[in-house]
Amino acid sequence: MVLIPPQLNDTGGQSVTVDQGESLDLQVTIKDADGNTIDAASTAVTAITFTLYDYATNAVINSRNSTDVKDNGIGAIASSLLTVRLTTVDNTIVSTATVPVGQSEKHVGRVNVTYNDGTASRVEIQETQWGVIHLATPTT
C-alpha cells in the first residue's frame, strides 16, 4: 500500500493548494499490504505508475496517464520514498470556463505500485488531491 493522505498536506498538516502553473513535488512512502516499507529500487517492485487528472471532469492532465515513474525523469526514488515531480504544465486549470479566477479546482494524483510479495504479484493504489488556484494571468 502506498500511503498518501486523501488531501495533500504540508509538513505542518495544512492542506496544500498551489497556484496555476506552479510546480509541486509529491512524496509517498511505499509500503506493502502489511504496512512494511518496500525498497522501491528492489526487484520486488516491478512498476510504479502515476496518473494525474481533474477531479470534476476526470480529464487526464498533461498526458500523465499511467506514466512510468520508476524509470522516468518525473520520479525519484530513495529507498522506500518516492518523489513525483510535477511541472508547471501539470498544474494547469482544466475547466477555465467553470472555475472562476481566484477559485481552485481539484487535481488528483494516483500512484500504482506493482510488486511481488514472494507469493504473488500485487498492486497497491492510492490517490491524493490538492487544489490549483485559477489565476487571472496564468504563468502557463
Distance between the termini: 34 Å
Query: Residue-averaged pLDDT, rounded?
Result: 86
Could you say what the CATH architecture is? Sandwich
What is the number of independent domains? 1
Q: Tell me about the largest β-sheet.
A: 5 strands, mixed
Shape: elongated
Number of H- or I-type helical stretches = 0
- Classification by helices and strands: mainly beta
Which class in CATH terms? Mainly Beta
Tell me the total number of β-strands.
Answer: 9
Strand content: 35-45%
Spans with pLDDT under 50 lasting ≥5 residues?
A: 1-5
CATH superfamily: Macroglobulin (MG2) domain
Spatial strand arrangement across the major sheet: 2-9-8-4-5
- Rounded to an integer in angstroms, the radius of gyration calculated over CA atoms is 16 Å
CATH fold label: Immunoglobulin-like
Helix content: under 10%
Write the H/E string, N to C. Answer: EEEEEEEEE
